Amino acid sequence: MMYYVLIAWILGIAGMGKVWALTGQTCTLFAIAWLIVQSFLFKFPQFNRQLMRWILLSLLCLFSFNLAYLYADSELTQRLSLRELTAKPAEVIVHVKSLNQLQPNHIQQQIIVLNNPKQPVKWLAYIHPSSDISLELGQYYRLHGKVLPAHSYAIAGAFDQEKWFLQQNIMSAFQVQSAEKLTKQQLYAMGLMSYVRQQQRTVAKILLAIEQQRLTLRNTLQKQSLHHSGLLLALLTGDQSLLSPEVEDLFKGMGLSHLLAISGPHVLIFAALLCGGIHRLIIRFRPSWYLRYPKPYLLVIPFCMGVLLYSAFVGFEIPALRTLLTSCIIAVLILLRFKLQALQVLLLSAAMLLFIDPFSILSAAFWLSYCACLVLLRIYQTLQQQPEQLTRTRYAQLKLYIGILFESQWKIFLALLPLMLIFFQQVVWIAPFSNLLALPWLSILVVPLSIIATLCLWVIPPLGILLFKLNDLSVSFLLSILNTGDQIFGSTVQNIAMNWTVMFGLILGLTILFLPRGVVPKSWSIVCFIPIFILDESQDAFELQVLDVGQGQAVFLQNHDQQMMIDMGGHYDEQKFSVGQQLIRPFLNSKGISDLDQLVLTHLDQDHSGAYFSLRSSLPIQTIYSNEPIQVMPESQFHYCYSGQVWQLDGVKIQVLSPQQQQLTEVANNQNERSCVLYIQVQNARPYANFLLMGDAGWEAEYQLLKNYPDLKVDVLVLGHHGSKHSSAYDFLKQLKPKVAIASAGFNNRYGHPSQLTQQRLKELNIPLYSTANKGSIQFIQTQDQTMQLHFYRDQQRWLSR
Question: Has this prediction a pTM greater than 0.85?
């Protein structure tokens, strides 16, 4: 029973952000129903007890699920109320209590804002490295700068920055322009005495001292002549401030990125070293203690203290918290002599973690960490079922350990495959093999030696430095092997396009494979894997989606087995952010699309065509149209787009209305007005059947359209030039009278798109305006009854709603 109740609690927390019809009343209803059934069973014990137990369990699980959802929803509501939603200049009083993160283009510093009207909140400050601003740990400052609200690209498959801010309990970003250190007397004058006194308590002082030790360790390693100080620091504390981009890319390419984050084994290594030292001391000075107390009883508390200390040292990351909670649960069970199965301990640990911090459910680390633990637990259960051999040679033991290592790696790889595809839409095929080498090397040699070296730094600094230098040599040897493998195999990162139907089959098939023998025939998994190879990935319904790509434009269109895009978004600084690789590619992967039939670039302004150049070598496109010539891959065909062209897509008619063929010679001097204007008609659709996409066309092109197509019917108008004041003329809007107008524009963009003038024109004509900046990706999808439904991506999660 405990299994199901805990799973229901976890799934209920997983509903965070969803709008479900679950209230306190439904929770009470489940509780009352459970009491009624329990009373009935007590009064009529002869009734079918097996059936009644299943009913009781179902009601208890529903109650647990409902209660967990309400708890998560309440916590989310409270946190959402503290967010900043508008960009503005601000003066804030802050306390610095966390270690900063050094980035190539800025310094990230978490700060506690004390003069927030509601309560002290955490913000993320950005400081330019060329400025003379330096925020010291434990100090208070008056900062001047600009509030930068978190704003995600609301597009399927892309990284959700707003979710990450919520999960990290960060309410806003802040660009620091100036800083002034404050004294305690100034803080007292501002009425902040209570907060200052809180920071003088023992726990707060210990946490601050740990952060200062982390900073000292970083500075010490940075000053030494080590080739890989950044990697040593990342493996030891999770601080990636000194990590070189080359090493980071190598670890990503080899599927080793998880080793750069602090995991459970890191914490256990420190705790094991601590307990090993205590064990040696007891044997040396107090061996009689083991005669009075069993060894587990003596070492369980020091073990938990070691886990707690190292978890604090690495910033209480989710894998470390998982290990801490699991260790504490096991410690309590040992001390109370209470038996609990390993799976129950793991589920109880997850449930407790989500009770302490329900926002952990939003992190990929939570799912990956616990899923990996489940696989290791399954391997352990398999080993327990094998017959014991009392005498094993060292060779046999070594063979057994190597076999376990191989088995664990490929099983973890397969088990985590669906999660990797869900969270990252890609997989690294060489990961099981690279982990076979790197995981033992780092876990047995590098991490323990780094821990010992760090401890020596506090006692005998020269010895600590020497050990770090020896460790640097071992890391250099490992990296040389990994670099050789990278050169031999090249890029092994594979983008995977898989829709949810195929994904469900993959998850179900892998679940069957990992179940104990006899529960379900293993051959059934083959049936689940068949859709991966034969299922038609296309959608039956017509779909048009104006994607949220910031200050640019990208439109996705799909009908049966035909997929095309109209524009692809912009190209800015590929080193900082790639619209193509980080927005368009993940979106297509989430749709199960690995190639396109057509691409129409309305014109070659970078905000419409730029992302194509970062994708053209990895995204096959059959035909490309534009108003100017463009270099395409050998497998693609290029054609000019001009008025009169018509494409039929099985019930969908696409026409090019502008420019005229003779106007193509004018494109170089008038790109915007000579944009390719597309008119899309969907047969029998209602209420939205006719779509007009204007590109960056303005008043001149609009006048020509009214002249050449006076009877044009438009239900949905994608405004020209992102809704600028030089497009969408009043007469043009009045004659077309669309049911919906859409502006593809970036949040808080410097151009002010869509312009106030354009918004005023639309308002006077009672034409609803939807902007991707506020609504995210805007989707039109046709149902079986020919109804064209309108959906906004930001309506899917509460934290995305504006």
Answer: yes
